[in-house]
Amino acid sequence: MSGMVSDRPELCSVGFLQPWNRCWVDVIKQIFVPSLPSRLVCTGVLKRPGPRPKVLLVGRIEYAYEDWEKIQSACDVFEYSSGSREDFLREIKAGRFDDCIAICRSNQYTHLSGNLDAEVLNLLPKSIRYICNIGSGVNSICTESCKRRGITVSNTPSVAADGVAETVIFLIFGVLRRANVPISTARAGEWQHECPTRIGMRGKVLGLIGSGETASAVAERAVAFGMKIKYCCRGDKPPSNFLKGQEKCCFEELTQTSDIISLHVLQTPETERMLSTREFRMMKQDAIIINTARGGSLITMLY
Ligand SMILES: NC(=O)C1=CN([C@@H]2O[C@H](COP(=O)(O)OP(=O)(O)OC[C@H]3O[C@@H](n4cnc5c(N)ncnc54)[C@H](O)[C@@H]3O)[C@@H](O)[C@H]2O)C=CC1
Ligand SMILES: O=CC(=O)O
């Protein structure tokens, strides 16, 4: 486990390599004996005197089944795995989650509860001390309200970086090589003998907005394809691994000079709609935008 403090003071980032759900181990560690390494807690050797802690799982656990079994052996788990936000609020008001000390959730299951915003946080029982987000971005959790209520929010940065980076490369390939054309025509039984494959990646300028784990993982791969990397960030943190030594520039230069722009920022009020009409006008005529961060950072419009 590697713990690191995020650039937002109220967010306690716990960086487990894999699997995603292992942030739970940290919660359990804090419940039992905070000074012990999580590895020991995982063995199930420790037993806390008194009643078993209650935890709420919103959605389902994927991948981390073994870790999850250990959690289940140590805690009473309440599962909320189907329903709407209205149902979720009703359950809270009915006291179904009373005495729970932690909530585990991921963005994948936001539709079950809606955002964990001020409305939800005000209704939650006072017993909730932790919100464990399976995922990097915590934009669907109101961290300000959590801070006010003394709730620790943990996330799992880094774990998805390789997967997202591979997807970004796949998307760049797809657009540059027009992969959808032969795929869709072949599926339709209309084999196209002449399919222009457009252009390659070598020498193209890839502008990365953000300099965190995902942007770094994209840079690592894009360099191998001969792309030229530029990145911009807020400047308050050093760039992650593979961005070191790459060209840092301002947001304006990046949007004006990149062939491909890839978004890798947290969604915050500052990054909301950061690519909008003004930026589209500044971009190269045939610029390509790849967005694997959050939809809110971009205004989508048809030209
Ligand atoms: N599509 C997917 O499956 C996934 C999407 N994500 C999204 O990607 C985002 C980035 O993920 P990571 O790289 O893991 O996060 P990270 O925390 O390692 O990096 C975030 C970066 O955003 C930068 N940033 C924040 N505000 C900025 C601004 N106004 N201008 C320029 N840079 C700014 C920070 O300085 C940092 O470099 C997440 O917040 C999440 O929304 C993350 C993981 C998976
Ligand atoms: O969208 C996924 C995340 O980890 O954030």
TrEMBL record:
GO terms for molecular function: glyoxylate reductase (NADH) activity; NAD binding. It comes from the Eukaryota. Keywords: NAD, Oxidoreductase. Its EC number is 1.1.1.26. Residues 170-297 form the D-isomer specific 2-hydroxyacid dehydrogenase NAD-binding domain. It holds the Pfam family 2-Hacid_dh_C. It is an enzyme of class 1 (oxidoreductase). Belongs to the D-isomer specific 2-hydroxyacid dehydrogenase family. This is Glyoxylate reductase. It comes from Extremus antarcticus.
